[in-house]
Specification:
single chain; seven-stranded mixed β-sheet
């Protein structure tokens, strides 16, 4: 699976996650970012075209060397300074209370230890700082949820550990954040078992 996971999958995700519907969601999540931003799972740089001018800098966390290489051209096309900050959102070598915003777009589904990644995100955010996210997760529709339970083992194995049954924003609240907005919907054109989305914002109490 090394060739698939390390080399082919990042290229597939780069194409599959660059749909019109996905770009519209990224635009919404990134629209009011400002200050110093830490992006979890920055992948092939698909958020880069959506960073607003109010962002002073972006630090990226990304384990895939192939995805980081693909991202190079997108990063070169933006005026926002971008620097690599490490491969692992579960253990970040970054100072406490450093960032104004933590950004996660379809990333927390793939992190093995979600609690650790959220705890680290909480740690590196300034008091009053924001977590902005869009994630797919467990559908409230019982029929769809049963399908998710059946398909997740194979889906996760093929797609880099992606889980479709995690619950947002519940997981975010359990990490100590105060959720301020959460919008739930099915993404246009996506299979229902992967298409239930939550676009949300949460703050680290100050």
């Amino acid at each position: 699976m090394a060739i698939w996971g390390d080399h082919l999958l990042p290229r597939l995700i780069n194409c599959a996650c660059n749909t019109k519907a996905g770009r519209e969601i990224r635009e919404r999540v990134c629209a009011d970012l400002s200050g110093d931003v830490l992006e979890l799972g920055s992948g092939s740089g698909l958020n880069a075209p959506h960073y607003p001018g109010s962002v002073s800098g972006v630090w990226t966390i990304e384990p895939s060397a192939v995805a980081r290489t693909i991202a190079t051209k997108r990063y070169a096309a933006t005026e926002v300074p971008i620097q690599y900050a490490g491969p692992d959102a579960q253990r970040m070598e970054l100072p406490d209370s450093r960032f104004d915003v933590v950004l996660s777009t379809w990333t927390m589904c793939t992190i093995p230890d979600l609690e650790a990644a959220l705890a680290e995100s909480y740690r590196v955010l300034k008091p009053g700082g924001a977590l902005r996210f869009v994630e797919h997760g467990r559908s409230p529709d019982a029929k769809v949820a049963r399908m998710q339970d059946r398909l997740e083992p194979l889906h996760s194995r093929i797609l880099g550990g992606c889980k479709v049954t995690r619950e947002f924003p519940l997981s975010v609240e359990k990490a100590g954040f105060t959720v301020t907005t959460a919008e739930h919907f099915y993404e246009k054109g996506a299979p229902k078992y992967t298409g239930f989305m939550t676009v949300g914002s949460a703050v680290k109490p100050g």
